[in-house]
Specification:
Blueprint lengths: L4 H11 L6 H14 L4 H29 L7 H23 L5 H9 L8 H24 L6 H6 L27 H16 L15 H15 L10 H14 L4 H8 L3 H20 L15 H10 L9 H4 L3
Helix pairs in contact: 3-4, 3-6, 4-9, 5-6, 5-12, 6-10, 8-9, 8-12, 10-12
């Protein structure tokens, strides 16, 4: 069956890149408009979910690679750097929608400062927790792929446990060193305090604010510094969602309730201590820095006594003599 000349001409015009019919453009615009979420809270929660997902996907993937390869494909520093890259990427991705908290402790601090409404605390935290859970599941799925025993099972000898040299639970959540007691609480408090103390000044216009476009990169460097210096004893969770989300996943993926009962119910430490630390860091910033910065609305006062003293100390120049007095013509 042959096409009519008109049909051939019409097909030829379409193949040559004729403009898309207006009806199709309108359909695309209508579809995109329908997909746009009008509720501000829903938009922000989706951003927090996606941002925390990106953060954990980078970090836990690096941890899995280093652990299952027995450090032949990376080292401890690789995990620290991967989490920092995840922080930077997630902040650039979501900063314009939700502010890129990515951390319940950070959200709690901003609520305490009055920069975020308290009614957003629980939705933000649940979104961050869900994002961390989904990311952990994807990391496990990636390493489960294959017909042979997957990398995690091969490393652990087929036993998913939180103890021993072949444990794999630390790929996802943080656990203390064998010798550590409740002293790990202090590490989590100090680490999160440093996080808030350092990031609160980045946008302070009365001090030396960082360029807005560079804030994600600077925060990533701060996180890298904390993880490189304060994570040896019990990991640098400094983020309840980063720890609880993956821990919940390991509970449901075969590691069992040991992920919560091990080390004298350690799980509450990275859940509670970062929140305490974030509030302490925020309080320190307010008391030691914010209260002492100049108010741009009030001009700085100049002490008249100092000015007059300086003026009086300056020797007054002697009056110039006329040309007649000098004998010059």
């Amino acid at each position: 069956m042959t096409n009519s000349p008109a049909g051939e001409e019409k097909g030829k015009e379409w193949d040559e890149g004729a403009p898309v019919p207006r009806t199709w453009t309108h359909l695309q615009m209508a579809t995109m408009k329908a997909l746009k979420t009008r509720n501000a809270l829903v938009r922000e929660c989706m951003a927090e979910l996606l941002g925390t997902f990106v953060l954990l996907l980078f970090g836990c993937s690096a941890a899995a690679q280093v652990k299952t390869s027995r450090e032949t494909k990376g080292q401890y520093l690789s995990v620290n750097m991967a989490f920092s890259v995840g922080v930077m990427s997630a902040m650039y991705l979501t900063k314009g929608i939700s502010g890129a908290h990515l951390n319940p402790a950070v959200t709690l601090s901003f609520c305490a400062l009055g920069q975020v409404s308290w009614d957003r605390l629980v939705p933000y935290c649940l979104s961050q927790l869900l994002g961390a859970y989904i990311a952990s599941g994807l990391v496990y799925l990636v390493y489960y792929e294959g017909t042979q025993p997957n990398a995690i099972m091969n490393f652990s000898g087929g036993v998913l446990t939180v103890y021993g040299p072949n444990e794999t639970a630390s790929i996802f959540a943080t656990y203390p060193s064998e010798f550590l007691s409740l002293g790990g609480v202090l590490w989590q408090v100090v680490g999160t305090s440093m996080l808030m103390l350092c990031i609160l000044g980045l946008g302070e216009q009365r001090n030396t604010p960082a360029p807005s476009d560079l804030i994600p990169a600077i925060v990533a460097v701060i996180v890298l510094g904390i993880s490189m210096s304060m994570s040896g004893n019990c990991g640098a969770a400094i983020n309840p969602a980063r720890d609880l989300g993956p821990r919940l996943f390991t509970l449901t993926a075969g590691w069992g309730p040991e992920v919560f009962t091990c080390y004298n119910y350690w799980f509450w430490v990275p859940l509670v201590a970062p929140c305490i630390g974030a509030l302490i860091g925020t309080l320190l910033y307010q008391i030691l820095i914010s209260l002492h910065l100049p108010d741009p609305a009030e001009p700085e006062r100049v002490c008249v006594c100092h000015v007059s003293t300086i003026t009086m100390a300056v020797k007054q120049p002697e009056p110039k003599m006329s040309s007649a007095g000098t004998g010059r013509s």
